[in-house]
Amino acid sequence: MHYWPSWPKIKSYKKLLCLLCVILVLTASGCLSVKTTKSTATLLKTFGRLPANSLIQKINDLTEVSSIKGNASLKLTDLRLSEQGKIEPYRPADALVVLQRPEQIRLVIRVPIIKQNIADMTSDGDKFRIAVYYPDEYRRFLLGTNKRDYSEQVEKMSGTEVKQDPRKAQQKQQISSIARIRPQHITEAILIKPIKADDSNLQYFISDLTREELDNVVGQTPKRVLRSYQVLYLLEKLSNGQLHLLKQFWFDRTQASLPLAHIQIFNQDGAVVSEVSYKKYKTVGKTAFPQTIEVIRSMDNYTLELNFENTQENTDIEKSVFFLENKENLPEKNLDAS
User: When comparing pLDDT for 89 and 255, which is higher?
Assistant: First the structure.
């Protein structure tokens, strides 16, 4: 949220006039000297580059993690008013996350401390099921297909009475944001698919890029830095001979291990549909796996950040975990039937 600062209230115009006169006199006499300095971004130290096949191998090594389950802190931000310079971050929630390759997921979102379920969702990679439990007036059970767009239907889910009640209006927005989350948005970000370098329909190349960022370190003032990356571009050769950009993988050269820091995913029109950032890597077997994952879905008007805690990798998970049943007999809505 952006807030305009409130101007100090000057009760007397006489005081304001005196203040202006003092400034003018000092400026004219040269007694007031204002020195402005413009800070420049610091270029961070870089480590050696890697060839394309080594970067591809780093991505494929992530597939050694076949399953994940654990608790996480979930932060959801509504971006619908971002063009007006406003965003709507919601209070962090607790989450129980279970994932299994290739694309299975179970995500339970809960109110912290009291552990009341807000929503529960599953996906098998093709279909999804979402149960919304809280608040009571928006309880429902949604079914749909991952690749379809239901944005208009989601916006109409809640009643018009929220216009009369600001509290309900915010609840409506939050539930709308939760309903816009597709489980596959999370699986494609965490369960990254391997790259088949020998596929004749895939082409790739690498380049070096440097971009200015704001470096936030806990307990320190944020500073501007220039961070260097190696970027792997993955393209698909279409039947008409044209090339379609699928993904960009950004590897951080300011760290010795060159970890995967970002992924950008593109649609058929070449627009970015998903941006994913990775931080706080944890060693799992012979590879490293991120514990903080942020997904930015600008077209879906939300961002989602997961901070994992107490994760277990490569454990056996029962198939029933990934099938969500409507045990509470919530009002059911098949979005494909609408």
Answer: 255
